[in-house]
Specification:
This protein has about 130 residues and is mostly helical. Strands 1-2 form a two-stranded antiparallel ribbon. Strand 1 and strand 2 form a beta hairpin.
Length: about 130
């Protein structure tokens, strides 16, 4: 399975619903996305077809409808997207990203504390 699949913002919305529900019909997906996106059934079908081609989703044929599910694993997709973002925006450097956020006062005190705890834990794990 290729977990380095590039998803558009719209495809992320669809696959996020599938990660939440495990399996959904086109009608269920359309209903769950309608308020947030305003998409109709044909838009959802188009997105699902693109995602099938990318091997991000697949379906089983039910009695009355196809039941779509994610092939792409959630954790792998998040990691791949994060790496891609860091590479595109910060030349692969998490340090540059954090520094930019701090310089712009875009990190709260609570987030700084959380980041410190994460770093302390990572450092402790490396020393074990």
């Amino acid at each position: 399975m290729n977990d380095k699949i590039c998803l558009s913002e719209a495809e992320w919305k669809v696959i996020s619903k599938l990660w939440e529900q495990e399996s959904m019909t086109i009608t269920q997906l359309t209903a769950s996305l309608k308020e947030e996106t305003g998409w109709n059934k044909s838009t959802v079908i188009t997105l699902l077809k693109r995602m099938e081609t990318k091997k991000a989703v697949d379906y089983t044929q039910g009695e009355r409808a196809k039941h779509y599910y994610a092939l792409l694993k959630h954790e792998n997709a998040k990691l791949s997207e994060t790496k891609s973002f860091l590479k595109r925006i910060y030349n692969g450097s998490i340090g540059l990203m954090v520094n930019a956020m701090i310089e712009q006062n875009a990190i709260s005190d609570e987030e700084l504390q959380e980041l410190q705890e994460i770093l302390n834990k990572a450092e402790g794990d490396k020393n074990d």
